[in-house]
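We store chain and fold; thus.
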Amino acid sequence: MSFTVRVKEELLSLKRFEKSELAAIIKMSGSLGISMGGLTLSVTTENAKIARHIYELLHHFYGAKSDIRHHQKTNLKKNRVYTVFLDEKVEEILADLHLADAFFGIETGIDASVLEDEVASRAYLRGAFLSSGSIKDPEKGKYQLEIHSVYTDHAEGIALLMQGFLLDAKTIERKKGVVTYLQRAEDIIDFLIVVEAMQAMQEFESIKVMRETRNDLNRANNAEMANIQRTVTASMKTINNISKIVDTVGLGSLPSDLQEVAYIRMNHPDYSIQQIADSLQKPISKSGVNHRLRKINKIADDLDK
C-alpha cells in the first residue's frame, strides 16, 4: 500500500461529514449530465472506499440515494473506476454547496465562504486530497505533495487555502491541468496536521528524521574519508621528500629536531600529525610538527634549484 493510499484511508477512517469536503470532491471529480428528469451528477474515483464515502455524504446531508457503478479501465494498469451516480436533488445540492454556475455547470473556483472559514478550509483540503491528491513516498527522493485541478483558478484557490495555514504552496501547469504542490517536508507534515491525518504525519516525520540521520552519517563518513585521503597524500609527499634528502645530502645534514620527525614519518607513514607529536622525545603540539614537516619539504624543494 502506497503512502498516499495510507493517508487517504486514514482520512476516511475519521468519518468526518463536512459539506466543504463534499464540495471539493464534486468540484474536482464530478461531472453533470442531463436526463429526462433533469440534471444528473456523476462523481468518479479509483478508490472503492472513497466512492462509499461520497455515497454516505450525499445521503447524510441530502437524503439522496445514489448508485455506485464501476467499470474496468482499458489501459495497462487496468484499475477499476467507480462512479457515484445521482439523478435526484442535483440542482438543490449544487446550489447548497455553491457549486452551480449560471449555465448549470460546476463553478471553477472556490466559494468565498470556504476561504474565510478555518473549519471549512480544513474540510475542503481534506476533500481535495481525497479526490486528486498524492504524496511521494517519503523514503524515496525529494518530498512532494500534489493536488491536481482542471482549472487554474481552482488550483490557485487551493494554494490560498494552504497559505492560510502558513504552508508554502505553489502552482504549476501540467499537460492535464494545474497542480498545487508542497515541496518542503515541514509543509507536508503541517498539511497532514491540518487535514487531521495524525498517524500519517507521525510516520512521515519518523521517516524524515531517519533520512536526515542517515544523511548526517554519510556526510560525516565522507568528511572522514576525505581527511584520511588528505593525510595520506601529505604523508607520501613528505616521505618522498625525505627519501630525496637521504639520496642527496643525507639525513644527517638536517638539524636534530627535523631528523627526529623525519625518522618517525619514514617508519610510520600511517601516523597522524598528533601521533607523530606524541612520539617525539619531547612531545610538541601538532602545529609544531607541521612546522617541522614544512621545513623538511622546503629543504627538499630547494635541492632542485
